[in-house]
Amino acid sequence: MTATFETQRAALADVVAIPVTPFAEDGSVERDTYRALLRRLLDGGITTLTPNGNTGEFYALTPEERRLVTELTVDEAGDRSTILVGIGHDVPTAIASARHARDLGAQMVMVHQPVHPYVSQAGWVDYHRAVAEAVPELGVVPYIRNAQLTGARLAELADACPNVIGVKYAVPDAARFAAFARDAGLDRFVWVAGLAEPYAPSYFSAGATGFTSGLVNVAPAVSLNMIEALRCGDYPAAMKVWEQIRRFEELRAANGSANNVTVVKEALASLGLCRREVRPPSKPLPETERAEVAAIAAGWSI
């Protein structure tokens, strides 16, 4: 019997939370704090979690730490959440990570955009096909940041691998997204706005039904308010939320998104929820910007 992945598809059409990875004073992953942050998300109504996403500092974690984060997430969430594990790097590493996620009971994997400097479109298909074929039981979600990739290539991948069920699309161009989704098959995949709340309204208008979020770590209710408005087609209400989170997201996006994770951790630190430390090549916020982030977080009445 061919898997239909209905549960996984429904989980993608939602707020897809990307948890931060908190670090202890000695630089190690702070396990208890991570679990507490996950519980806060789950208690706040979040039901889709992506351990080892970019907001979780995927590329700054060791292989052992990535496995640990996956294990902690699956164990803490239990049946309260659908787990979409971030994987990537070379093909054998990505496959090993996907199988580890599968063996723990995770339901899906998100394949990070390959960071190799020379990525051909045919090679992109081969990379994702190798991963998807290794774990046919899992839903597979490519993370697309490459504006050169065509929708036809995604359709080619899904023809070979029916477990490719959704797409995290993170090219900052709503018109390109609309064309890409239609070229690939608008109804064939679950389209997740991969640039979070700032792009969610425009991407939903073009066919997205879910969005990723790092902000959700700080204020789950804010992210849920936005998706509820978008599901109802109430774009004025969604834009009210957009206005509410605009400055926070501008701070994250400044200087080529240099502080994307830093701002989220700073907000959590201001609330006493985790330490502010991030790993190189990220860097903590200077003192001059910390007060502004704290004021924004406090203003969300968390």
Automatic annotation (TrEMBL):
Q: Return the InterPro entries for the record.
A: Aldolase_TIM (IPR013785), DapA-like (IPR002220)
Q: Is Lyase tagged as a keyword?
A: yes
Q: Which Pfam families match?
A: DHDPS
Return the Gene3D superfamilies for the record.
Aldolase class I
Q: Which UniProt keywords apply?
A: Lyase
Q: Which family does it belong to?
A: Belongs to the DapA family.
**What is the protein name stated in its UniProt record?**
Dihydrodipicolinate synthase family protein
Organism equals: Streptomyces bullii
